[in-house]
Structures are given as C-alpha cells and as structure tokens.
User: Fold this.
Amino acid sequence: MGHGEKDTTEITNPQFPISNPQSPIPNLQSSNIQGFIFDLDGVLTDTAELHYLAWKKLADEEGIPFDREANEALRGVSRRASLMLILGDKPYSEAQIQEMMERKNRYYVELIQNMTPQDLLPGAIALLDELRQAGIKIGIGSASKNAQTVIERLGIADKIDAIADGYSVQEPKPAPDLFLYAAKQLGIEPEQSVVVEDAAAGIEAALAAGMWAVGLGPVERVGAAHVVLPSLEGITWADLREQLSHVSRQKR
Ligand code: BG6
Ligand code: MG
Assistant:
C-alpha cells in the first residue's frame, strides 16, 4: 500500500491510523498500560525549524552547503551525529568539532528563548491532560540537552512526571537506554509503557526496550511502530487504547 502524499495531516485519511501487527509485542497487553513516554522534538513541538536555522547559520559561516532537505535527515539525530552528517568527508579536529557543536547550540538556545505554549503541536495538550486525568504517568524521552528549557518554555512542566534527556544516558536512540531510563523514573515496567515518536531511530529504540510504539508521520519513516498516526491532532487516549488493543488481538 503506497503512501504518496508529502504531508498526511488528515486523521480522516483512510490510511490512518495504521496498526502494525508485525512489530514485536513482548508481553504487551493494552489493558496494562501505566505510562506514556513522549519524544519532544517533532512530537510535542516542532523544533526542527529552529535546529535548522541554527545549523544553517553555522554551515553558512563555515561555507558548507546545507538546506531544509538535508535538515530532514537530522530528525531525532544527536547533536554530534548531526554535525558529522553536515560536515561530510571534510576533516576537522576534535577541538573544531567541539567548537562547532557549542556554536550551533548557542544559536539554538537563543532561538528557543522565544518559544511559548503556542508552539505546542495540535492535540498535544489535550492528550497530556486526558492521560493525566486517567491516572497515566507521563514522561519525556528526548535526545536533546535542551529538553528541560523547551518544556519550561512550552509551559508543560507541571504535566510531566519524569524527564529523560540528552544528559540521562550514554547510548543514544536507537539504543533502548533512554526510554528504559524514563520508565524507571516513572516507576513502571517497559511493557506498561507507550512511546510516542516521530523518528525512525526512536521507534527502533522503543521496540528494543519492549515498549509499545506509536509513530507520528509517514509510514516510510515510522512504519515499524505498532500504530502510525499523522500527528496527535484529534487523538484521544480512548482511541489509542482501542488501536493498541487491536494490535494485541491480531498478534494472538
Ligand atoms: C533531538 C532532535 O530531539 O535532539 C535533534 O530531534 C537534535 O534534531 C537532538 O540534534 C539533540 O539536541 P540538542 O538540543 O542537545 O542539540
Ligand atoms: Mg523527535
């Protein structure tokens, strides 16, 4: 089944939501879900443009070609790995690499100061509130060392029970470490956890952790998730639980 459109934002699109019974379901029972772990960039807010502007400024200063298309490949990719992709084969010393990572981060930190609750993506706040009311724990699992600041700027700190960020673990996604750390902070088991992610590496990390995976975006990117949605817009906890229970049933 092809997924031709560039940007599938309609929940009414017949291709969505997609349940994927091929993905591993180790001991997963939708009735057991106790917590949600949200990736931040691209899930609760769209910082991709701000990361782009910061990388673009650095690339321009260094005379390296970089555009929005190249930026797409950096979704969910760590700061260092992003810089490596931008630099390509050009040789740089470790000191130069460190300086460039710091410079880019200065530009990015400047940009996120202007973020406000208006920068939350559609559907995010409604789902967070509904989950909280249902007694579901809420964690953040983000590769970013700026996650804390972004959460404060978005005004959602009081809705979050635990934050796993770029300081929490050594191994970046697709390793399961960050999500396992988040679940531990929440006091729940992996199989009681649902990860919501927009990056392929994040879905891989969630599955490797033995957690439920909900992918946001095109199937080409997040198709390995148990359930794929265009975005969080209009998504309720009741809908999601229903979708996940279909996956468990199909698998049995
Ligand atoms: C991820 C973003 O959440 O965090 C990436 O999707 C970013 O674009 C990565 O490179 C690291 O973020 P930071 O803020 O520590 O440079
Ligand atoms: Mg992301």
Notes: Residues 128 and 231 are 14 Å apart (CA to CA).
